[in-house]
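User: Here's a structure from my thesis project, written as structure tokens. My advisor, Dr. K., wants to see whether a designed sequence matches the one we expressed. Can you design one independently, without my sequence as a hint?
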């Protein structure tokens, strides 16, 4: 087992990894930018190293500085968290070359799944159902129009290197195609340095259902059911739950097996998420994330497992601590992503926290790096906390969520907490009756946003 793990990340996820390591008797090293000198992950880790100035390209994305920090402190493994370098093939490769273990999949698997066209081809070959659309990349407006005509409008044009909801444009009809095609390409180029795009049929009433998988790197793999992340704004998740309110045990077992078998066949190692759109009882693959997801705690809650601990175990060659048969769902869990943003405009508003009180009690988990007096730096993501609740069933989880949200105090900055108070008053949220388009429509109708 590793003696010391460096965490190449910040905020709540850095704390999350430090906690798992500490429970396993493993020392932790935090890295931080100058803007994060006072951050909680720096205080909580056993050691901390400053790796550069505030802008992430010079600190949290600075591969050379991170490897130096690992070498100076004698860390034998690096956990990348999510975002930043977590799906960076060059980083995984550089660690392999330096004899430091990357707590995640191989550089090769990151490469294959990081390009959405290659990922889709691979999944199709492995028997995973995909959204109908173009066969690979589409290079010209003429070809795009042909795909639109064959698949039937509306269609969505997606950058193969896209992520975080960027590089996607919908064409409602042939008239929109040229603009949508060119915009998706230029967004892909500007944000990800790659202008290759592909086209999918745009599904009108799907839910976002994703399957958590775990490979042991030795040809074995399990699945940990699904998460429903249908409540999204600008293709970004805000409310996630497990199990999915509309998924039957039979559907779960069937799609879960398809996913576990697929990753087992490619000898995948570590945690992964296979994302689907789900419509009229059918699953359509959209992408695979080769890392721990922001919303992993809902899966941990219903299965009673620590996914970061398992990541560390498999990276150390110990295999998983459970088998598929050991995994039984217990109750229902919901996570809210709380951002330092205004509501309903969702404009980022970093600032100083004058008072912070986390909710507690049975079935409540607060993953956050906030503290009284903390100054949120303006340089990073606006996620400041994740509130996770667990109940015996969905009704209990929702009541607990309402209660916990009432206890939460975050003063000094505006947050997206009001959004959740409003949502919990909506009948559709209680019945679980929503698609990926519900939240945007609701925001437009109720808040003109
Ligand atoms: P990203 O990597 O940017 O997260 P994804 O491919 O995972 O992009 O898609 C993100 C979200 O965009 C999905 O959860 C869904 O809301 C929407 N989306 C993607 N593909 C389609 C599609 N074919 N039809 C309808 N919505 C889609």
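Assistant: Designed independently from the structure alone:
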């Amino acid at each position: 087992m590793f003696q010391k793990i460096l965490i190449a990340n910040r905020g709540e996820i850095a704390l999350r990894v430090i906690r798992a390591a500490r429970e396993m008797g493993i020392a932790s090293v935090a890295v931080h930018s100058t803007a994060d000198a006072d951050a909680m992950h720096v205080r909580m880790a056993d050691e901390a190293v400053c790796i550069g100035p505030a802008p992430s390209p010079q600190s949290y994305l600075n591969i050379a500085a991170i490897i130096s920090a690992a070498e100076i402190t004698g860390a034998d493994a690096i956990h990348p968290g999510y975002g930043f370098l977590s799906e960076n093939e060059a980083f995984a490769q550089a660690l392999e070359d330096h004899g430091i273990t990357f707590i995640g999949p191989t550089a090769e698997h990151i490469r294959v799944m990081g390009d959405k066209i290659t990922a889709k081809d691979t999944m199709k070959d492995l028997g995973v159902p995909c959204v109908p659309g173009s066969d690979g990349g589409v290079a010209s407006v003429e070809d795009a129009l042909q795909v639109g005509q064959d698949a039937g409008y509306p269609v969505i044009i997606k950058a193969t290197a896209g992520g975080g909801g960027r590089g996607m444009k919908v064409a409602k009809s042939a008239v929109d195609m040229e603009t949508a095609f060119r915009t998706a390409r230029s967004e892909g180029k500007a944000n990800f340095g790659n202008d290759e795009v592909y086209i999918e049929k745009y599904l009108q009433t799907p839910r976002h259902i994703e399957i958590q998988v775990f490979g042991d790197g030795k040809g074995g793999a399990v699945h940990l059911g699904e998460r429903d992340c249908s409540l999204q704004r600008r293709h970004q998740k805000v409310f996630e739950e497990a199990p999915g309110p509309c998924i039957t045990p039979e559907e779960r077992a069937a799609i879960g097996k398809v996913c576990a078998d697929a990753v087992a066949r490619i000898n995948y190692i570590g945690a992964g998420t296979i994302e689907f759109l789900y419509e009229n009882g059918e699953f359509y693959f959209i992408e695979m994330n080769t890392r721990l997801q922001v919303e992993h705690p809902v899966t941990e809650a219903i299965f009673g497992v620590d996914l970061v601990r398992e990541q560390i175990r498999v990276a150390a060659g110990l295999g998983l601590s459970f088998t598929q048969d050991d995994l039984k769902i217990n109750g229902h869990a919901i996570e809210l992503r709380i951002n330092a943003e205004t509501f309903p405009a969702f404009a980022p508003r970093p600032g100083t926290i004058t008072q912070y009180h986390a909710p507690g009690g049975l079935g409540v988990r607060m993953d956050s790096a906030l503290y009284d007096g903390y100054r949120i730096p303006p340089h990073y993501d606006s996620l400041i906390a994740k509130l996770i609740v667990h109940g015996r069933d969905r009704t209990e989880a929702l009541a607990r969520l309402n209660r916990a949200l009432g206890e939460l105090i975050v003063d000094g900055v505006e947050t997206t907490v009001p959004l959740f108070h409003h949502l919990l008053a909506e009948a559709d949220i209680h019945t679980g009756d929503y698609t990926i388009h519900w939240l945007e429509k609701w925001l437009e109708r109720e808040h003109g946003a």
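When you compare it with your expressed construct, this may help: The CA atoms of residues 6 and 29 lie 4 Å apart.
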